[in-house]
């Protein structure tokens, strides 16, 4: 069974420390994980992640992504001011998540 994963927050730290290793894992373990969706308020960034790392769909709204996708997990890489809000949303939806912290 493949795990359907999403990522919210397509900034610099997300690119190098989360999306790249996820894409490498997906390539090295075929069928184990599906990179279902990438989400960023800036849709161009989300689209770039979709293209660069092989996510299936791009979203500019977390609520829309959660409404449309069946997810087994989500990585959140938010600016400090948004960490709590986005984490609460994911937890309220009972989605197992990785919440990136500040350095
Ligand atoms: N643990 C570490 O070693 C380490 C290292 C660097 C950064 N960080 C942390 O990672 C986080 C991200 O840092 P960064 O440099 O990538 O920031 P960034 O500003 O480059 O990226 C954040 C992205 O989140 C998006 N975003 C903001 N609110 C959103 C929302 N509600 N829904 C969807 N997208 C939203 C922004 O549009 C932006 O693209 C920060 O909390 C930072 O402290 C941790």
Your description of this structure?
Strand 2 (33-39), helix 2 (43-53) and strand 3 form a beta-alpha-beta unit. The chain has four helices and five strands; from the N terminus they run E-H-E-H-E-H-E-H-E. The chain is an alpha/beta fold and 103 residues long. The chain has one domain (3-99): 3-Layer(aba) Sandwich (Rossmann fold), CATH 3.40.50. Helix content is 44%, strand content 22%. It binds nicotinamide-adenine-dinucleotide (NAD). Nicotinamide-adenine-dinucleotide binds next to helix 1 and helix 4.
Care to give the gist of this entry?
The chain is of the alpha/beta class. The chain is built from four helices and five strands. The protein has a single domain, classed as Rossmann fold, CATH 3.40.50.720.
Q: In CATH terms, what is the architecture?
A: 3-Layer(aba) Sandwich
Query: What does the average pLDDT come to?
Result: 97
- Sheet with most strands: 5 strands, parallel
CATH topology: Rossmann fold
Our Rg estimate from Cα atoms comes to 12 Å
CATH top level label: Alpha Beta
Small ligands present: nicotinamide-adenine-dinucleotide
The dominant shape is globular
Taking the alpha carbons of the first and last residues, their distance comes to 34 Å
- Within CATH, the superfamily carries the name NAD(P)-binding Rossmann-like Domain
Secondary-structure-derived class: alpha/beta
Strand content: 15-25%
- Major sheet strand order: 3-2-1-4-5
What is the tally of helical segments? 4
Order of helices and strands: EHEHEHEHE
**Overall number of strands:** 5
Unreliable sequence segments: none
* Helical proportion, percent range: 40-55%
Taken together, the total number of domains comes to: 1
